[in-house]
Amino acid sequence: MLTQAVTLRDKVGTRQIGAHLCLINQRSQQAWVFSGVSSQLWDELRAGRTPEEIALSLAARVKVPLAKAEAAVQDFLENLWGHGFVTLEERSGEAPASAEEPFNSHGRLWNICFDNHVLFRTWIDLLIPCNLRCQHCYLDFSKTDVMPFADVCSYLDQLAEHGCPEVVLTGGEIFLRRDIMDIIAYTQEKGFLFELFTNGNFITASVADQLAKYHIGAVQISVYGTSAAVHEAITRKPGTFEKSIRAAKLLIERGIPVRLVNVVQAVNYEDAFGFPAFAHSIGADYDIDGTLMPNRNGSQEPLKLGISVAQMAALHTAGVTKPPNPQVQCTAARGKGRITSHGDIYPCNVINNASLGNLRTTSLEDIWASPWRNELRESIVNYKPTRCGSCSNDPDCVPCAATRGFNQEHHEEAPVSEACMITTADLLYRGRAMAPDSPVARVAASMGSDPYAQNAGNLIHGGLVQIQAIAAAR
């Protein structure tokens, strides 16, 4: 029997991804994908048409008996109710939990977006200014850009129309903005799954109370150690550890998921082994990365703060970090992107020297349809510096142009990259020796040093010194 009355629930996002209808339940943080005539049925529901009217329209449009159309409409409505998108007259209370995994788990939604050239996740740099000056930070603090509120709303509008289901609001320090709650409210209004990235220093009990009104997927908080001594050796500002941990606890108390984000460097390497247990002890998830990136002003100084190949491998062995998967496809300029505070859209959240276009002058639709996007993506995916040509480890190399040196000035001449280090560490973790012709082995040999004991910054510097010496001799 066809349902007579349907009520659409709030906190639901609608996305069209190719031929697929994607509905986002912000309350449960789940996304579900429907195919076939689902898009038309959903549009008619949102237009206020009754199930009976929708069934009559469907029967006429696809030329099937009315009974078959009614069955299809009822099945669709039952699915919507089961995933929390509607209430049905004859159903009371919430639907029982579905045994099916939502599409935003295990990469299914990611794959659908990737196949349809739709941004799955977009990082939005709301501003550059920050209250901290962490020693490894890639931000260029000579710039003080703040994205105007009207631009934020315009970009969110365009991303929703494009089909993008997820955004990360980041900076700089986003809570330096007085309008941050307005931005969060508008992000939720547009139906996104979204996360916040902050150092937590400005999250008080009052701020946490305001955040609890929204359906936030997670608040990522930068925490670099299990103690103030370790954390503040990196932030270089006393009192920041206490503020960050207090923020995490305030949010967790209010049911907001928290993920502590740690970047492993030489100064906090030993402490990193206890970081997972520390995060779990306060009820938080965690993310640890041992990869450093050059500063966005072109400086490679942050790379000199990194850990060695042997240390990377040890973190993998201990289960603290995850080894890379060389089979994963690069999603730059296809499945993810980053919008800067001055409106440039970049191919991903780490490539910063090749803009796809500027959203202040060109629409996202036009940028995404331009030949330049495809050309840039091809240059990124196929990017291999000259040093890669003779390396026997190339089949195992991480498929990330940014870590291969795409971001670095004069990257073609750089004798080694962060990708070389990551790949060599992965080989060591798996019990395989690096190839003698690999960049890490060659540069370390020229320096007379142990290749497993150096970090990327030292090897790059040492290799460039060798190149410059050879050039001078000529």
TrEMBL record:
State the superkingdom: Bacteria
Q: Which organism encodes this protein?
A: Granulicella mallensis
Concerning InterPro entries, the annotation shows: 4Fe4S-binding_SPASM_dom (IPR023885), Aldolase_TIM (IPR013785), PQQD (IPR008792), PqqD_sf (IPR041881), Radical_SAM_PqqE_MftC-like (IPR050377), rSAM (IPR007197), rSAM_sf (IPR058240)
Protein name, UniProt field: Radical SAM protein with 4Fe4S-binding SPASM domain
Q: Tell me the cofactors it needs.
A: [4Fe-4S] cluster
Q: Which GO terms describe its molecular function?
A: catalytic activity; iron-sulfur cluster binding; metal ion binding
* Pfam families linked to this entry: PqqD, Radical_SAM, SPASM
Q: Which residues form the Radical SAM core domain?
A: 116-334
Query: Which PROSITE patterns does UniProt cross-reference here?
Result: RADICAL_SAM
Q: What are the UniProt keywords, alphabetically? A: Iron, Iron-sulfur, Metal-binding, S-adenosyl-L-methionine
Which CDD domains has this protein been placed in?
Radical_SAM, SPASM
